[in-house]
Design brief:
The structure is a single chain. This protein is mostly helical and 127 residues long. It has helices spanning 3-17, 21-28, 32-40, 48-57, 70-95, 102-118, 121-125. It is elongated. The two termini are 25 Å apart.
Length: 127
């Protein structure tokens, strides 16, 4: 769920409950101007604590939910980085007048992916 969608749902809940923003501010312990900015979506740097306080005051529990297993996430990250690296090789080869075929690109990607998965996680997640 995106942050904007989450905040939209909080405001929808507030409206369904018939709770005013001043009442929500008082119940949550978050200042009224901050509640207004958060629920309007104009507060791009809202603190996590403020959003949690508002959600609790509205009877909503926000949970952290894994969208994939750690292994799947690592594999996906390794694939994306490997594909990026392979495209860099392809671009460099293209500048030199050499064409990298699709099969060769896939092989480069596979090799880079396996190296990234077997190596340091720092290298995997570094830009």
């Amino acid at each position: 769920m995106t942050a904007t969608l989450c905040l939209t749902r909080l405001d929808e809940r507030r409206r369904r409950l018939g709770m005013s923003m001043p009442a929500l501010a008082k119940r949550s312990g978050v200042s009224l101007p901050t509640v207004q900015r958060i629920l309007s979506g104009r507060h791009s740097s809202a603190s996590f604590e403020a959003v949690i306080a508002i959600s609790n005051a509205l009877g909503i529990e926000i949970e952290a939910k894994e969208t994939s297993s750690a292994r799947e996430f690592i594999r996906d990250g390794a694939f994306k980085k490997a594909r990026k690296l392979a495209k860099m090789v392809q671009a460099t080869s293209g500048l030199e007048g050499q064409v990298v075929e699709t099969d060769a690109m896939n092989e480069l990607t596979d090799q880079a992916m396996h190296l990234l998965m077997a190596g340091s996680r720092r290298k995997l997640w570094a830009d």
